[in-house]
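hey so u asked for the seq, here:
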Amino acid sequence: MHIADMAPGGSEVAVVCTDDGSAPVLSSAADRGIPTEVIERGDDESRADHESRLRARLDDYEFDLVCLDGYMRVLSRDLLDDLPTTLNVHPSLLPAFRGDDAHEQTLDAGVRTTGCTVHVATEELDAGPIVTQETVPVYEDDDPAALKRRVLHEAEFKAYPRAVGWFAE
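ran it, structure tokens below
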């Protein structure tokens, strides 16, 4: 299931934007007739210049909510102040296991429950106010790939549409 197929709270996806021209989401969006924008960051381009180009490209669209998913950059306070509410989904129950290796951290810690957190994006990594969380069990034979699949399908696919629906109402 794809969030664009769900329309939580009557929402519509205005644009899919990525910094990776090979991101699978581009073909998925195109199949649904959703406009796409690719704004790759140049090797010696500053964060401020990249965010300025991103913001300029978004000016062509009307939107009330930004939903990050797999956008592996921390946004600056200036950009976040310029955008409407910006949500992010993280594959752990924050505040535990921040960063891009949350599944490995979860398994190393030996916890028996994990999940995902939808939070408001801030200029601090995975530290914004929590909007909602969804839990999943951790099994003894889990490896990072199995845990990642379970968190995505059983937690993120529930929690993110729920959060979007709340903001869209």
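The chain has a mean pLDDT of 91. The CA atoms of residues 20 and 40 lie 6 Å apart.
lmk if thats what u needed
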